[in-house]
Structures are given as structure tokens and as C-alpha cells.
Amino acid sequence: MPALDDAVLTLPAPERVGAPSAWALLPGDLAALGPLRGDPERLFSRLQRVADWGAEGPAVGKSARALLAHTDLSLPEIVEAHPSADGATRCVLRTSDGHRIEAVHMPRATRNPRVTLCLSSQIGCAMGCTFCATGTMGIVRNLSAGEIVGTVLALMHRLGPRSGHQLTLVFMGMGEPLHNLAHVARAIEVLHHQRGVGLSPNRVTVSTSGLVPGIDQLGALKVRPLLALSVNATTDEARARLMPVGRAWGLAALKAALLRFPLRHGEKILLEYVLLRGENDSDDDAVRLAELARGLRHNINLIPLNPHDATALAPPDEETVQRFARRVRALGCLCTVRDSRGRDVRGACGQLVQDPARAPRPNPGVSAGGTPGSSPPRTR
Ligand code: SF4
């Protein structure tokens, strides 16, 4: 059984040190920095509204620069972009202290074009889920709120969209977001501000491996996002084997936390279930999963494992996936099968990891270390 890092339950993950990031400051924080000629909301808008930026970023006047002199104005830099054949782009960004983080840009061509950004909340992850490449890295540190906001703004600037109204965020990249809730919550609050990106909290999903106290804290946030729980097993024994966090909180405790989570009108909790051949894909599992979902306003999302080098686990065949989905639906559940994007560039669920030895070969036409630049990602 994999070891559960004590830091998961007892200690906060290490934090970034250095000047506070300008990207995490709300208008009130800007006003508190010192005397400013003009309106702090206007300065906030300048910083956060990508549509008004020039090629190099926001244009900030002299007095504002002086005000921001003791903050960190650097944005995470997009150092690699790996476009997938399905239109998604896996991006590697470098933080100001030289760490590499990943995000996936997923445009959807609908009548109202939208982009989903899959974001990381930590560098690495302490949770050690056995099916996940990120889990093999261990935890390096939390991302700061400024780095999370900066990732969103940098990607919007380079790849779009320019407006927050076309944007959806999912915290399903590297890291356990509830292990870094203070920074994740602050980033969501900043991105929600109407003078900036103006992102609705109904367009932000935070996915957790199942930190029960964190779920309760998430439910109490002023700007509360949607909740997803990565379930992945239907008995406590199997869950503890696949996900060390399952040793701390069993399925009964998780269900109780989901039942008390405050939901808005029409809102559902996303129950993610990574299907693993021979591990959690039996008919009995389908019945127990439906039982877990009973009484919850839910949507079950089945995710056949996206294979990677760090695990010997494998996905079930397509027939098993469909049979599992039919069984769960027949028991009254809403159930979809995830169309994982970016698999060919290791950008799909569970594949994000920063190890140069495992870095994928970039697609022809895009040089390693380059960005899509003038070649926008294809849409499906
Ligand atoms: S699945 Fe999520 S919580 Fe588990 S190791 Fe991977 S990144 Fe961490």
C-alpha cells in the first residue's frame, strides 16, 4: 500500500517566498499599498483585463509602477506549448523561481465558442494516487494565488479567450486544490471581480481527492466554485489501496460531506470515476457507485484511465466502459463518459507531470520550447 505523506494531513504544503504577487491584489489591496493617482478599481482593471493589454502585457503608468514597486509583477512564462490533434494544447509555464507547471487549454467550437482551462494548484502533489503521473512527483510547493491568476491571464493573452465570459476553469491539473485552498480561493475571488475577468463561480470547478475538512471549507467560501470529487473506488479497502487519502476518510465520511455541501439552484456535484481494468470496473462496482450517488444531486463522469509510464494500471476496453455506464444509468444516475482531450501530448487527466525524461515529443510544426504563436489551436 502506498505511503501517505504526513504533510497531507498535518502540515501545510511549502509556500512560495518572495514579494507578494500583484496579480492577486484586489482593488482594496491596491489602495492600501500607498497613495495612487486615480481610481484603484481602474488600476485593477488595467492589470486584469487581457483584452486591453498590449503585446507585452498591461500598460501601467508611472505612478502605478511606483505603487507596485514592492510587488512581483512577473507572469508565469509559457515556455512550451504542445498542440494535440484534438485541438487542446498542453502548456508548460515557468514560475519566477524557475519551477515548471502545466495547464491545458481546451477550446470548444460551439455556437458560442468557449475555452476550458485545466489548471494546476500545486507544483507536484502530496496525495500519491496510484493512477496519476503527478502523484509520482511528490509535493514541491503550493502555487500562490498570484501564480494561479497569472497562469490564467498569460494563457488568455496568448491563446484566448480575451473575455472571461467565454472561459471555464477546472482545477484538475497538478496538485490537490484543497491542500492549497487559501490561494485557490483568493485566485477565484480575484478572477470573479467584475472590473477584471468577471468569471462566474458557476464556471469554476474544484476537484478534490477527498479531503473532508477542505470540502467543508470550500462550501463556506464567499465566492464558491463548483465541487468535483474524484471517487475512483466503491469500497474503503479498494479506495485506500488506490488513493492513500482514503485511509483518512472513508466513503461514508465523504458522502456525509457531500450531503452537507451547500448547492445553488440546479447545481450538481461532479463524481469523477477513473475506470481501471480489473480494479474498479465490475458490475458490483457499478451498483455500489450508484448507491454512493443516491440522494446526491450528481453527475457521474467516467474517465477510462489515460495510460502513462508511471503506472502499471490500465483502462478497461470500450465495451466494459459502456456496460459500466449503462448499469449506472439503469440505477437512476446521471452518467457521462469523459472525452479526455490532449492524450496524444500527455495533457489528459492524470498525465500531467514535469519530468524531462518523460516529456512528449512535440507535434510536427511546433518546436520544443516554442508556443503556438500565430497558429491558433484547432477546434473540434
Ligand atoms: S489525482 Fe490529483 S490528488 Fe491524486 S496524485 Fe494526482 S494530482 Fe494529486
> Numbering strands along the chain, what is their spatial order in the largest sheet?
1-2-3-4-7-8-9-10-11-12
The CATH class designation of the largest domain is: Alpha Beta
Tell me the overall shape.
globular
* Largest sheet data: 10 strands, mixed
Which percent range describes the beta-strand content? 15-25%
Number of domains: 2
- Helical amount: 25-40%
> So, CATH architecture of the largest domain?
Alpha-Beta Barrel
Number of helical stretches of at least 4 residues: 11
Question: Given the helix and strand composition, which structural class is it?
Answer: alpha/beta
State the end-to-end CA separation. 41 Å
Q: Could you name the CATH homologous superfamily of the largest domain?
A: Aldolase class I
Q: Unreliable segments (pLDDT under 50, ≥5 consecutive)?
A: 356-380
**Pattern of helices and strands:** HHHHEEEEEEHEHEHEHHEHEHE
The CATH topology of the largest domain corresponds to TIM Barrel
Look at the structure and give the mean pLDDT. Answer: 88
CA-atom Rg in angstroms: 21 Å
Characteristic terms for this protein:
TIM Barrel; binds iron/sulfur cluster; 380 residues; disordered C terminus; two-stranded antiparallel ribbon; 27% helix; alpha/beta; 11 helices; single chain
